[in-house]
Specification:
extended; catalytic activity; Endo/exonuclease/phosphatase; Deoxyribonuclease I, Chain A; Endo/exonu/phosph_ase_sf; Endonuclease/exonuclease/phosphatase domain-containing protein
Length: 537
């Protein structure tokens, strides 16, 4: 069959649900059955008209030629009429003759439709493949700067550090403090203070105590306990009669702030300082405002700043507002109530964050006020040590090397040379079997008397504290106070027994070394700041 007429096309279109009298661009191949009745098979992609064709940019199935042809106004093969040239196409893959591929339309014009029959199917995964060239290029952000660490700061009115040095050091270790401002140290600046300072320096060897004692009078005194690594410079101190303070500049790398630890005694008949405090403190703040450094004023002011009806507290707060200072503590800082311990800072460059009021574990009737200071914490102190791993020492091999050494096989006759030979040979053999290793170790606070019993008592104390904070009941508060007393008494007794046992078991040489180490620590770590304090009596 050379070509198909319109009637045959109508039959095919009706049986294939196509519109009659319209030209279809498809390949119709004749086939014959046993009855010699002609049949026409439409070669088309699977699902070409029966289902939706998946879109693929390089697929010929995307161009729906049949629908364009059925529209009626678009030719199946637009362009000038040309003669058939077999050389233009490769029919090697076509099973039909080229005459079967020539179809005549209604205008009796011949058009060739070259078709290649293939069983190859494009893998479906290529249809859904991703073109990475279409991905938007996102500029990578460099490594984000590390968040600067803050320093842990705390304020406590200890009410005599003389008999509470051990408990105070335990408080520093428990709360991981870097800087502790202390008021009412009750230090006098005499030799009686040495045992207190020695005790602190031995428990916290990597801290330094700066203090200004109150001389010739009981009570008072301010101090600063700060970790090694900060640079501390003392500033000039005014001669005041209504309050005592310590003024230092603390820096670490490029960060610097000015810290004032202040104590104002309460107003009483013997100490009439209430009227003069606002005047002296106002003059002090006027000079302080000239400093460009961030300022922190921490201390016990003995003002009920939480009581707005108190005229003295109102005058004090007005003075702070006029000098651009803000008060950061909110809540009761005393066992009987009211906010007495304050942390002041400038509003424009406030370096104080995360202010909290915590229990002082029954050390004082004041609570512990903690906060974060925007100053990078110094790295822990390190020590370069040398050690030998003697646990893995092969004694049999070492003894064999000693027996084969010149010390045994060829000893020197002279005593001096024999001594040199002895030291040289044994040192060489020992270095061979247990070489010297060097490393840096981080120094941390360590209490040699800290026992498992103390650890258990401390855990019970913290558990009772959490229960009291959760419930707020008075009975839980009393249980917590009792657990604090038990822990403090046990800490004092354990430390006393430790040193008593150590002294009794030491000989004269060991006792001398221990005493010398303790006293040398006190001499090198104590730093009393010479500040004029002239409180009215």
């Amino acid at each position: 069959m050379d070509c198909l007429n319109i009637s045959s096309l109508d039959y095919i279109c009706k049986n294939h649900c196509l519109y009659p009298n319209k030209w279809i661009s498809a390949v119709l191949l004749p086939c014959y059955s046993t009855s010699n009745r002609p049949r026409f098979v439409c070669l088309r992609p699977k699902g070409y008209n029966a289902s939706k064709v998946k879109y693929y940019a390089n697929s010929t199935a995307t161009f729906n030629q049949a629908r364009l042809t059925l529209a009626g106004d678009i030719a199946s093969n637009p362009g000038p009429e040309i003669s058939f040239l077999s050389s233009q196409f490769d029919f090697g893959a076509i099973s039909q003759s080229k005459e079967d591929l020539i179809i005549q339309n209604e205008d009796s014009q011949y058009y060739y439709i070259p078709t290649i029959v293939s069983t190859h199917r494009r893998p479906s995964k290529k249809i859904y493949s991703r073109n990475i060239n279409n991905v938007i290029s996102i500029t990578r952000v460099g490594h984000l700067p590390r968040t600067k660490s803050t320093s842990n700061f705390a304020l406590l009115n200890v009410r005599s550090i003389v008999k509470k040095s051990t408990h105070l050091c335990d408080l520093v270790i428990s709360h991981h403090l870097d800087i502790l401002a202390i008021t009412e140290t009750w230090l006098k600046g005499t030799e009686d203070d040495n045992h207190v300072i020695t005790d602190i320096n031995n428990i916290l060897p990597h801290f330094k105590l700066h203090h200004i004692p109150r001389r010739n009078r009981k009570g008072g005194g301010v101090a600063l306990l700060i970790r090694d690594g900060y640079t501390v410079l003392q500033n000039s101190i005014m001669n005041t009669s209504s309050f005592e303070y310590l003024d230092v500049s603390i820096s670490n790398k490029s960060e610097t702030f000015r810290l004032i630890v202040l104590y104002r005694p309460p107003l009483c008949k013997k100490n009439n300082t209430g009227n003069s405090f606002l005047q002296e403190f106002s003059s002090f703040l006027e000079e302080l405002t000239l400093s460009r450094q961030p300022i922190i004023i921490a201390g016990d002011f003995n003002y009920h700043v939480d009581d707005l009806s108190n005229p003295e507290a109102a005058s004090f707060l007005n003075l702070l507002e006029s000098t651009d200072l803000i008060q950061n503590v909110s809540g009761s800082t005393h066992r009987l109530g009211h906010t007495l311990d304050l942390i002041l800072s400038r509003e424009e460059n406030n370096v104080i964050t995360d202010v909290r009021i915590l229990s002082a574990d029954n050390i004082s009737d004041h609570n512990l006020v903690t906060c974060k200071v925007k100053c990078t914490k110094p790295k822990p102190s390190t020590l370069h040590v040398k050690h030998r791993n003697t646990k893995r020492l092969d004694l049999a091999s070492m003894i064999k090397d000693i027996e084969e050494s010149n010390l045994i096989t060829n000893p020197q006759s002279c005593v001096t040379e024999l001594t040199t030979q002895y030291n040289t040979n044994l040192s060489s053999i020992f270095d061979q079997h247990a070489p010297v290793n060097e490393r840096w170790v981080t120094l941390r606070p360590h209490s040699p008397w800290y026992t498992d019993e103390l650890r258990k008592a401390k855990q019970d104390k913290r558990r009772h504290e959490r229960r009291y904070i959760s419930s707020g009941l008075q009975i839980h508060h009393e249980i917590f106070i009792d657990s604090c007393k038990h822990y403090n008494d046990l800490l004092t007794a354990t430390k006393t027994n430790y040193y008593r046992t150590l002294i009794s078991s030491s000989d004269q040489s060991q006792l001398f070394k221990m005493t010398q180490a303790i006293m040398m620590t006190a001499m090198t770590k104590d730093e009393e700041l010479k500040g004029p304090v002239n409180l009215s009596s």
